[in-house]
Each structure stands twice: as structure tokens, then as C-alpha cells.
């Protein structure tokens, strides 16, 4: 059997497969990139060739223009694709629309690179599928026992209840543009919220794309400048950065809400001036990270980014060899938001 290092190693550009001559989610332009999902910290423009799911390719084209790469190839979920000496497959990661784990195999050795992933409910993308493997290369964004995400429906119900209790105030929900915004909308619909949901202009393009892909988001309205004063009691979704903007001041007595796994840390919510923190994360929490590691049956775990040290310590205690890679440059999408 080949050694794991023959299938995956670290270079300054990020994770690299020598046997297939490709990088995964490279941080800088490379000849051949396999991209797990469309978030800006994983999907960057300027590669010669990109292999990704059709949705990830669409999202990259929406964000960077059709010329983000010289050539592209789409990978359907589950399709085995031969590259050099290895076989790769893209498997749903449950993170955002089109997100994938990448399975690399050769000679009976199987590695899985998760990219970002979650196991929680999300009506807007295919659910995470656990692939048994020898080496599991996982994110660890919330790899501390303090990060246990509460039931998602409770968080959504709190938001809806607040719009009823404070019907004279606009509810500004900060959510990043790819995935979180659409998931919040879909979860609100799932809890029976059927009023129009108002969108900051920066969220429109990707939300339209989700709808075009068949994701039901119900009635959506773009916020025009003159609308703001009359949106008391309504839900307005905006990029987190817009909550502190001049843009937000014209709403009637706005309540700053923020949908993020980081809202588990109350000090962080206070520091950001968030009045209604909503613990809604697109990353696995501590319990899901360790349950997933066990479920893969992997004898070895590499941790790409996040709270890698605590999770590596847990792995050691469970008799699993763990290696924190501490790759820099990932995690910005959620950290900023
Ligand atoms: Zn991501
Ligand atoms: Zn990320």
C-alpha cells in the first residue's frame, strides 16, 4: 500500500497530491486545482485548470467571472475521475450548495479531505455523507468542547418570536452571502415564516442562483434605499459588514442579529454589538467533529484549520494518530462574518 504522503503533502500553495499533480483548495494560483466549495477562502481565481462540482464552478463564475480559470471540468457527486495515478471523487459535505469532500484513492489507500463541512440540518444543500477512510483530513473550525451548536430550530424560532415581540423594530440579520443567507431563509420558511424576506443587494446574485437551482426560498424583496424606513417588524438579511454601515441606520430602531457559530461566545456577540445572537453555523460542532472522526474509522487524522490542537489532543486520547496542519488562509469567510 502507498504511504499517505505519496497521495497528499503540504506545499506553500496548500495541500498537494504528488501522484495526481493537483492541489486542493490552493491559496495561490496553480496549474491544476480541485476546489471543495465556493467560499472565497477555498475557491480562489487564477488557476489554469479547476475541477469542482457544477455548482461550485457556477459560484466561482458568478463571483470572479467566467475567466477565473483557463479551463474547468465539472465533477458530479460520486463520479470516479482518474487523475494521473489516483482516482478522485467529490462527495457531499453539507456545508453550502455544491460543497464537497474530496476522496483520493490509490492501491487500497483512501484519503478524504473534508473542506468545510457540517452535519446539521440544511434544506439548501445535499447532506454530508460519511466515507470510511484510512486518513481523514478534517477542518476543525469549532474544535473545542465549548462549541456545541444548539438545536437550529430553536434559534430560528427565537428570531421569529422577536419579530412578533418587537414589531416596531426592523430585524437585521447578518449572514454571509454564500450559504448562510440562503440557509437562514430556508430555515425560516421551514418554521412557517411566510412574509417577504428582505435582502441587501450584496446577497441577491447568489440567492437568485440558489432559486435557479431549485432551492425554495419563498418571497424575497431587494431593499431599496427608500424602503428602509418602513420595514418595522420585518426580517432583513445583509452581509455582516453592513450591520455597522451607514446603510443600517435608516431602518426603524434596528435589532442587530447575527447568524454564526461564533455567537456561542457571548463576549464576541457583545463586542460586535449584536443584540440577538443566533447560533447558526455551517461548520461541524465539537460533538459532530468527534462523532464523524469515529464514524470514518480513520486511523489517522490531519486537521487543516481551526482549533486543531484541542481536537488533536482528543484524537490522541482515542488512540487515533492526529496531525494539526495549521494551514493559514482558511476560515476567513466565517471569521469575518
Ligand atoms: Zn466554507
Ligand atoms: Zn473555510
TrEMBL record:
Protein name: Putative exonuclease, DNA ligase-associated
Organism: Saliniramus fredricksonii
Keywords from the named record: Exonuclease, Hydrolase, Ligase, Nuclease
Coiled-coil regions, chain positions: none
GO terms of molecular function: exonuclease activity; ligase activity; RNA endonuclease activity
